[in-house]
Design goal:
CATH architecture of one domain: Distorted Sandwich
Helix content: 40-55%
Structural class: alpha+beta
CATH superfamily of one domain: Glucose Permease (Domain IIA)
CATH class of one domain: Mainly Beta
Low-confidence stretches: 102-107, 109-129
CATH topology of one domain: Glucose Permease (Domain IIA)
Length: 299
């Protein structure tokens, strides 16, 4: 017959009466089954905890790495934007130099502009890098190229500056203070007739009486009234270059007069076919109107 109870006796050290605890047999059998299961469950929970803890630590490391990568991307984007801005400025400067030197050998000029800077100069000026990151190397190569191009352009500009007689004839100075309001090219006529017409100059808005300065040295070849232009001055700078100044309110020069660079030649106004006070400024090369903005290097 199977035991229904198990008796546990507790005998004290002194002479006290022993105590008996009766435990049902089924409880013992259930305990023998549950204890291994609970042990295995505890082991599983412990292992899962350690795994989750390691994943949390790894996630923290990944988050820190992602933050660093985002900072690196922002840094590279900032450097790229800076270089793009620099290259855009250089290209603009290059195009203006090419335009104002249209009487020179363009092939020779192009070779001077595009020829690489000597490596010794680049090594002296451009920052060296020891990075093995291909992205950083590409940035450094682009920096060196842009620096070399900029140096070549400045050297070319200095070379042109040495040719004083030619450079002094170039209308590189803005003739009057004020905002550019209408550029060179086809536009709708401002007189309200809706017709599209070629605008062969650059309009600079200003108050009546604003001084108009000669953008380069030259000789006055016409000073008077001309249809559409009102009171106009025409100046010959040599090398096939002429500049015109229309809608003036007062002419301060006369034909045949020699003019220095920066000399006041007239006052702005609203004479002739005009909708407001401004200077209509034209540049002609060998008798053909060209965009004056390409010649203005100085405000």
């Amino acid at each position: 017959m199977a035991n229904r109870f198990y008796t546990i006796m507790i005998v004290p050290e002194n002479a006290q009466k022993p105590r008996q605890i009766h435990v049902p047999a089924w409880l013992i059998r259930v305990s023998l089954i549950l204890l291994p299961i609970l042990f295995l469950l505890a082991i599983t929970i412990l292992l899962d905890y350690r795994y989750i803890a390691s994943q949390v630590s790894e996630n923290r490391d990944l988050q820190a790495e992602n933050r660093k990568l985002r900072q690196d991307v922002q840094l590279y984007q900032s450097r790229l934007d800076s270089m793009e801005s620099s290259l855009e400025r250089i290209e603009n400067f290059s195009s203006r130099l090419k335009m104002i030197t249209n009487l020179m050998d363009r092939d020779q000029l192009s070779q001077q502009v595009e020829s690489p800077l000597p490596s010794s100069v680049i090594a002296e000026k451009a920052p060296e890098t020891k990075s093995t990151n291909p992205v950083e190397i590409n940035f450094d190569q682009l920096t060196n190229r842009s620096y070399g191009l900029e140096q070549n352009l400045h050297e070319l500009y200095e070379l042109l500056s040495d040719q004083r007689s030619f450079l002094n004839a170039l209308p590189t100075k803005k003739p009057s203070e004020g905002m550019f309001t209408s550029g060179f090219g086809v536009r709708v006529s401002p007189m309200g007739d809706g017709a599209e017409k070629m605008h062969e100059g650059l309009d600079i808005a200003s108050n009546v009486g604003t001084p108009i300065h000669a953008p380069a040295a030259g000789t006055i070849i016409f000073a008077g009234k001309k249809s559409g232009y009102g009171q106009i001055i025409m100046m010959d700078h040599g090398y096939g270059l002429e500049t015109w100044y229309g809608h003036t309110s007062r002419i301060l020069t006369k034909p045949g007069q020699k003019i220095k660079r920066g000399q006041v030649i007239a006052l702005s106004g609203n004479s002739g076919r005009s909708t407001g006070a401004h200077v209509h400024y034209e540049v002609h090369v060998n008798g053909i109107p060209v965009d004056p903005i390409n010649y203005i290097l100085e405000n």
